[in-house]
Amino acid sequence: MAPIFTTTFSKPDELRSDWTAQTDDLAALKSCRRPGNVETSNVGARFATLVATDCRARWSTGSIFTKAQYSYGFFEATIKIADIKGMNNAFWLTTQDHYEIDIGEVQYPNYSHIGLQYWPTDKSEKHAGVGFGAKFTDNLSYGFHDYGVLWTPKELIFEVDGEPVAALVTNDAIKGPVNIWLSAALADWAGGSVPDHPEGHGMVVKSLRVIGLKASER
C-alpha cells in the first residue's frame, strides 16, 4: 500500500512546509531546542547539538512536529542515534485526545523506551502510563535502524527493524488524530550523564513514512 506521507528530509522547502520547529528551554533538560538545529541534508534530517548562546541550558538541540495530523496506520522512521550517553533520541505521536505514543526514546548504546501515556486535561483526571524497555545487542549509533508502530483502533504494535518488540491492547481508547514528533534532547536520565562536550554529536533521521489503514482494517 502506498504511503500517505513520506519524506527523506532532503529538501529545505519541504521541511518548512510540512513541519513546525520547536523553541523551548525546559528545566528538566540540559539542552534548549531551537529551529536552526534541524537541517536537511543528502542523508536526512540532522539534529545538531550546539553550544547554546541564547538560553538557560549550555547546549541546544532540535525538535520538530508535523503540521498535518494523521489517523490510524503504520508510522516508521529510519534513525541513527547520537553516539553519546545523555541524549534522548525520540520519535513519538501526540493525539488530540491527550495521549502520547512513544515509538522510541532511544538512548546510546542499545536501549529504547517504548510506551503510552495519557496526560490529564484538568485536576479531575490523573496521569496514566505504561512503558517497556527494549535492549539490543547492536550499538544503535553505528548505523540506521527502523523504529515503528502499527496503530489500529484496538491495539498498538511496536517494531524495531521489522521485528515486533511490544504490543498494547487499547480497545478504542485512542481516537486521534495525531501529530508526529522527532526530537533530540540532552538529559542525565537519558542513558547516563551528559558528557562535558556533547556538541557535534547528534541524531540523523534518514526517512519517515506513514501508511494509512484501509476502512476495512479499522
Please specify the SSE layout and strand pairing.
Elements: E1 5-7, H1 12-18, E2 19-21, E3 31-33, E4 38-39, E5 45-47, E6 50-51, E7 59-61, E8 63-66, E9 73-80, E10 87-95, E11 99-107, E12 111-118, E13 128-135, E14 145-151, E15 155-160, E16 163-169, E17 178-186, E18 203-212
Pfam family, one: Glyco_hydro_16
Domain GH16: 1-216
Family: Belongs to the glycosyl hydrolase 16 family.
Number of strands: 18
Low-confidence stretches: none
- Reading off the top of the CATH hierarchy, the class is best stated as Mainly Beta
> How many helices in DSSP terms?
1
Pick out its properties.
mainly beta; Jelly Rolls; seven-stranded antiparallel β-sheet; 1 helix; ConA-like_dom_sf; GH16 domain-containing protein
Task: Describe the fold and architecture.
Residues 1-216 form the GH16 domain. Belongs to the glycosyl hydrolase 16 family. This is GH16 domain-containing protein. There is one protein chain. The protein is mostly beta strands and 218 residues long. It contains one helix and 18 strands. Strands 1, 4, 5, 9, 14, 15, 16 and 18 form an eight-stranded antiparallel beta sheet that branches. Strands 2-8-17-10-11-12-13 form a seven-stranded antiparallel beta sheet. A three-stranded mixed beta sheet has the order 3-7-6, with no helix packed on it.
